[in-house]
């Protein structure tokens, strides 16, 4: 499974994504692609999207925890790694 969340995709990339994915909300793409095709799509995104796109990619993998999160640019939500587990920062707590 591959899920792509974007702040702002270029129109050509967004149109291409609609070939492989459903788009339940604007700039939210979900698909059950095989691993080889998913890797091709991720490579395509890295080649055709600027950091301004703010993309977060969730890809299922066979190793624990069962998913991998990758980013292009700076998405709206932050990403941290805690003892090898990738997590999304929902809210920063001020000290």
How would you concisely characterize the structure shown here?
With 95 residues, the chain is α+β, with helices and mostly antiparallel strands. The chain has one domain (2-89): Alpha-Beta Plaits.
Describe this structure in words.
This protein is of the alpha+beta class and about 100 residues long. It has one domain (about 1-90): Alpha-Beta Plaits (2-Layer Sandwich). It contains two helices and seven strands, in the order βαββαββββ. A five-stranded antiparallel sheet has the order 2-3-1-4-5, with helices on one face. It is globular and about 40 Å long. The N and C termini lie far apart (about 35 Å). The mean pLDDT is about 90.
**Unreliable runs, pLDDT <50, ≥5 residues?**
none
Order of secondary-structure elements: EHEEHEEEE
Mean pLDDT: 89
Q: Which bin fits the share of residues in helices?
A: 25-40%
What would you call the structural class? alpha+beta
Number of helical segments?
A: 2
**Class, according to the CATH hierarchy?**
Alpha Beta
| CATH architecture grouping | 2-Layer Sandwich
Strand proportion, as a percent range, falls in: 35-45%
For the biggest β-sheet, the strand order reads 2-3-1-4-5
Beginning-to-end CA distance, first to last residue: 37 Å
Instruction: Provide the number of structural domains.
Output: 1
* Inertia-based shape: globular
* Gyration radius, in Å: 14 Å
Number of strands: 7
For the sheet with most strands, the description reads: 5 strands, antiparallel
CATH topology: Alpha-Beta Plaits
